[in-house]
Design brief:
The chain has 245 residues and is an alpha/beta fold. The protein contains eight helices and nine strands. Strand 1, helix 4 and strand 2 form a beta-alpha-beta unit. The two termini are 32 Å apart.
Length: 245
């Protein structure tokens, strides 16, 4: 992908979270069924890093379950991180840290301990990263953060399975781009919550494309399923582990 196009797409999402963090946070208080399916089986003393933690929905769910391990939540939005700290009001038994990190920045993971986490979770994150190279670099960094027996659990939107979301696709001309400047599967979705409209860049993953990303990054797939939404197919989930040599 052209670097200028990639920068434009990153800017679109950065502007969204700068201007709409309040309305976005208001819609993110429930743990999705697919997330619950994965997280409720975790050991209570695990070491977890939550990539794209937002307003800390997962952290609060863990705290309510009596999680006693180590949790690190990272996100691009300082406003959402402030919400996460504020909403985690009851004294949790574990260690909870929130840190501002931009996955588009080179060496974003340099400040995070390597080979450390039992679980790295990245729910609804990868589809906001433009360009195959950036997604590959990001996932390779994931591999370095988990322990040798650690797992990566992630989800990507399957917006195309929702008639409501299909109506929210807006033309690239809205932001001065042409369709042939984008990668296959790239879309622009509008945002209607809150007082003013917004938009976000989204890349559409198929099972094969997400699996290919895992293999190229040195992972093998442990589990895969669909969940969320009225029909149970609004997100594709996969669980990865380091490929066995």
């Amino acid at each position: 992908m052209n670097p200028e196009i990639k920068a434009k797409l990153l800017e679109i999402n950065q502007i969204f979270y700068q201007h709409h963090s309040g309305s976005f946070s208001a819609t993110r208080h429930q743990v999705q069924p697919g997330v619950r399916r994965l997280i409720d089986s975790l050991q209570s003393d695990a070491r977890i890093i939550d990539i794209g933690c937002g307003n800390g929905t997962l952290a609060r769910h863990l705290a309510e379950r009596g999680f006693s391990g180590e949790y690190l939540g990272v996100d691009l939005s300082a406003d959402l991180l402030d919400d996460a700290r504020r909403l985690l009001c009851s004294p949790p038994s574990g260690t909870y840290i929130f840190q501002k990190i931009d996955l588009a920045e080179p060496n974003w993971s340099a400040s995070i301990p390597t080979n450390n986490f039992d679980w790295l979770v990245a729910f609804a994150v990868l589809h906001h990263l433009p360009g195959a190279d950036l997604r590959l670099e990001t996932v390779r960094a994931f591999r370095n953060l988990i322990s040798p027996h650690g797992r990566v659990a992630l989800s990507v939107w399957q917006w195309q399975n929702s008639s409501r979301l299909r109506k929210r696709v807006i033309p690239w001309s809205t932001v001065g781009l042409k369709p042939d400047e984008l990668d296959a599967g790239d879309v622009l979705l509008d945002w209607r919550a809150g007082d003013s409209p917004g938009m976000r860049y989204v890349h559409t993953f198929s099972e094969d494309r997400l699996s290919e990303l895992a293999f190229k990054s040195g992972f093998e797939i442990c589990d895969m399923f669909y969940s969320d939404g009225k029909m149970g197919n609004l997100a594709l989930y996969q669980v990865w582990r380091r490929a066995q040599k």
